[in-house]
Design a protein that fits this description.
This protein is an alpha/beta fold and 244 residues long. It has eight helices and eight strands; from the N terminus they run αβαβαβαββαβαβαβα. Helix 6 links the parallel strand 6 and strand 7.
């Protein structure tokens, strides 16, 4: 059992006890990509939430109320994420939402929770900007949270391993064209700059691209000793295949 998820769900239910939306059950939204390239992360997140809710409900719920999960597939698409967030807030009347695997979906959607003063907890969505959208003094309260390490932390770890651990001095960056990929690329470049290293090549690819030959060739011609990437599973597999 994932204790972090269980603790979060419990905290949300306790907060919901005073909510104007209170009913026989406590509705919690679960928004994530259950289909498409990001679905392995989305499905595992959803299953973890289901386990936590089932364990809590088996013990009588919280304050005598059972958790009701309202699951929606955002398909890793920004426009679908916006639609889902509005449905969960205005139609389903959730007291909080868990989810968001993709940075772009989160950045496009979570503002509706902020405006409604409803907590939203990102389970992945690692883009540094995700938790910086609604900070004081411009906003008195921030309803956006995240349980994973941001790309500022992750990119620094990637660079530390490449430069300090593997002693590479010439690296290339390949990042997908999504918000996740491009914000991650920026964080990688900042982390490299902190070590006085400039990437020998910076290339971009799109979701569902199946041929990375052109990008890899440019990196090779630039003398890259290693490729630092920001993308998701299917496209990363294409990069790996192209390097064989």
């Amino acid at each position: 059992m994932n204790m972090k998820i269980k603790s979060i769900v419990t905290a949300l239910v306790l907060a919901a006890s005073c909510s104007a939306f209170a009913a026989d059950t406590v509705k919690i939204g679960v928004s994530g990509p259950y289909t498409g390239g990001s679905s392995p992360m989305g499905v595992s997140m959803r299953d973890g939430v289901r386990l936590a809710a089932a364990e809590i409900n088996a013990k009588g719920g919280v304050l005598g109320r059972k958790i009701e999960l309202v699951e929606r597939d955002d398909e890793a698409k920004n426009e679908r994420g916006v639609q889902v967030s509005q449905e969960l807030i205005n139609k389903e009347r959730v007291v909080a939402t868990l989810g968001y695997i993709n940075t772009g979906v989160s950045l496009a959607s979570q503002r509706f929770y902020q405006e409604a003063k409803i907590p939203v907890i990102n389970n992945v969505a690692t883009g540094t900007a995700v938790t910086h959208q609604f900070l004081p003094p411009q906003y008195a309260d921030n309803y956006v949270f995240r349980t994973s390490a941001s790309d500022t932390i992750q990119s620094a770890m990637i660079v530390r391993e490449a430069v300090d651990g593997r002693k590479f001095t010439k690296v290339a960056i390949l990042a997908d064209s999504t918000n996740y990929g491009q914000l991650g690329r920026e964080d990688l470049e900042k982390a490299l700059a902190a070590k006085n290293i400039k990437p020998v090549a910076v290339e971009k690819f799109n979701i569902k691209d199946v041929d990375m030959t052109a990008q890899l060739l440019k990196a090779k011609e630039a003398g890259a000793q290693a490729i630092l990437t920001y993308g998701i599973g299917p496209e990363l597999a294409q990069i790996a295949n192209g390097m064989e």
